[in-house]
Amino acid sequence: MSAGATIALVGVSMIPDLPADPASVAAAATAVRASVDGVADAGRDAVRRWGGLVEAYETPETATAVASLSPVDDAAAEWATAATAIARALEDYAEILEQQKREIDQLHREISGFLAGLRSFQRSQREQFAPDGEDLPSHLLFDPSHLVYNDDLRARCQHVAAMLDIAAETCRSDLGAVSGPTTSLPPASVPAPLSTLGPTGIATLDDRVTAAILDALVRAAGTDADADAVADLLAAHPDYLDVLAAGTADPAAVAAWWESDVVPGSALAAALITGASLAVGGLNGIPAPARVAANRETAARRLAEARAELEDTPAYIHQGRVLRSNASERTALEAEIAYLERVAAGERSLYLYDPRRERIIEMIGDPSRAAYSITYVPGTGTDMASYYSGGVQSVAQYLVEQDTTGRSVAFVYTDGPWASWGLPFQETSNANRDFARGEGAQLARFEDGLRTDGQLASATHVGIAHSAGMSVLSSAEVAGAEYDQVKSLAGSWLQDGWSAREGTDYAHHQYGVDAINYLNPFYDTPQESSAFVQHEYTPSSFLGIQNELDNHVRVAEGPRRNSEVLRDLYREIHE
CB under 8 Å to 435, separation ≥6 — which residues? Predict the structure, then answer.
């Protein structure tokens, strides 16, 4: 099998062109804004000067002439208002153009470097494995890191194209909404953005772009609440999902939109849950029941795909030899299918599920009754498959099940590719502060979304993090997330700029000497921070020798080996 048969490589041709020069658009906005004061002043001056005509020249026609001038001031003010709106639309457009110009320049550099490195790698592989020029299977031509980086570059190109398209349409719609000459502009192909999203309005350009997409989904559904039409729109514009997945819109504005424009339980809500399940299931601000229902739709589609993949999982053969067995692929698919069947049956609830982007948040418990909202942030190496066995949910599952009043809900959180072992400069490395910072900002937005959701708004909010999850959780606090309690389970380093928040109770739990403690001389860690109440538990040992790595794993396990820590966590949360 050749590389070209299976791998869609990124190329510089995928990078979109800027539709306009940001400096020119900004200059036009400046020129329009500069004219506003002059026109308004001229209108007032004309009325003032000619208003004295009655005293200087008294005739029957004078009063009529002066009266005819009175609209001039109003017209000038109206023109100034319109010009201000035009300038604002152009300024917003110029800002997005400048942002995307920087990303386009960066993509040119990265893609050129990536392709050059890939060619060198493949040349070396062919010299080693195919000196006679025979075809090589794709797994020999591409290192896994190549595939990940290739997909990332392609997604970034698509995201730039989406942002340019939506920003242009938003600007066009804004200009078209201005009364006066601009009404002759052709209508936008994307419906004009909502003027408000409920009572909160639209505060930022991110919110306005999100509003334009949400409005497009509502219009696609139409009066018949057609879920297929919604799905067709997203199939034609997959970039819309990329924009929504960024999660930058105001959750309160989204919540108000869902409550007032969509209306929970309506036919329109059902159409969006079915036809736009990835959007509804991943958008902060949409209530938990709607998100869970939407993610069940997405899971059902993935379940069908996984079953089909299991039926047709070929062995990898090269020149008559099996290079590697498909047993591991089949085992992985079987585990995924079993998990998704539980989701389909309602035995598991997904607050977020987007397998292509490796986004998953499992919800345990009933949020409508919750007095305690627990966010569990797992450690290094967690991935989608970690959820299939139930191991990553062990701590959260215990804490919810122990609350016999049913007033606890927990969210097991991994939004996107998670922390991995690697060097600090590698993208998802658990030593990469920028990676943790980005994930923390996303976690903070998730927490903001919880606080728009009915009963959860007034709940006690608890953040629990294991290992590298603590770096993400502390980054979320730096980004503005607020917890009533924070629990470190052998937590890793704290983000630069982190400080204990007044009103938050902090505690650290570990067994004996934990492998994570070797970071202490180099980083600020929960074990060394005076903000954290320290809890150390007796570890298992053999002839007095501890297994420090086992200590690190054990503290995030279920009650069979970790009952003392779990009991203390439950007591601390509820005392």
Answer: 419, 427, 428, 429
* Residue 408 token pair: 């606890």
Collapsing DSSP to helix, strand or coil, 442 comes out as helix
Would you state the structure tokens that stand for residue 274, as one six-digit string? 């079915």
CATH topology match: 3-183 vs 358-574: no
* Residue 326 binned pLDDT confidence (cut-offs 50, 70, 90): low
DSSP state of 463: E
Helices (H) and strands (E) in the chain, counts: 20, 12
- Helix (H), strand (E) at residue 385: helix 384-388
Asked if 139 and 316 touch (Cβ cutoff 8 Å), the reply is yes
Pairwise CA distance, residues 402 & 222, whole Å:
46
Closest CA to 394 of 562, 575, 570: 562
Q: pLDDT tens, 333-365?
A: 999 999 999 999 999 999 999 999 999 999 999
Phi and psi at residue 383, to the nearest 5°:
-145, -175
CATH topology of domain 3-183: Ferritin (1.20.1260)
Contact predicate 469/491, CB 8 Å: yes
Q: Could you tell me the CA-to-CA distances from 194 to 25, 197, 445 in Å, in that order?
A: 24, 7, 22
Q: Looking at beta carbons, which pairs linking 286-289 to residues 24 or more positions away fall under 8 Å?
A: 286/254, 286/255, 286/258, 287/255, 287/258, 287/453, 287/454, 288/351, 288/363, 288/367, 288/368, 288/453, 288/456, 289/264, 289/368
Residue 360: C-alpha distances to residues 104, 357, 363, 567 (Å): 30, 9, 10, 27
* Residue pair 408/497 in contact by the 8 Å Cβ criterion: no
What CATH fold (topology level) applies to the domain 358-574? Rossmann fold (3.40.50)
State the DSSP H helix or E strand holding residue 352, giving kind and residue range, or none if neither. strand 349-354
Per domain, the residue ranges of the chain are 3-183, 198-282, 358-574
CB 564 within 8 A of CB 554: no
Short-list 16, 24, 171, 210, CA closest to 100: 16
pLDDT digits (tens, 9 = 90+) for 365-412: 999 999 999 999 999 999 999 999 999 999 999 999 999 999 999 999
| Burial class (CB within 10 angstroms; exposed 0-12, middle 13-18, buried 19+) of 547 | middle
Give the model confidence (pLDDT) of 179-193 as tens digits: 653 333 333 333 333
Determine which helix (DSSP H) or strand (DSSP E) holds 489, and give its type and residue range: strand 485-489
Q: Which residue has the tokens 């906005």?
A: 29
> How confident is residue 50, by pLDDT bands cut at 50, 70 and 90?
very low
Is 350 in a helix, a strand, or coil?
A: strand
What is the token pair recorded at 60?
């029957």
Residue 150's alpha-carbon distances to 9, 357, 395, 435, in angstroms, are 7, 14, 36, 18
Burial category of 308 from C-beta neighbours within 10 Å (exposed 0-12, middle 13-18, buried 19 and up): exposed
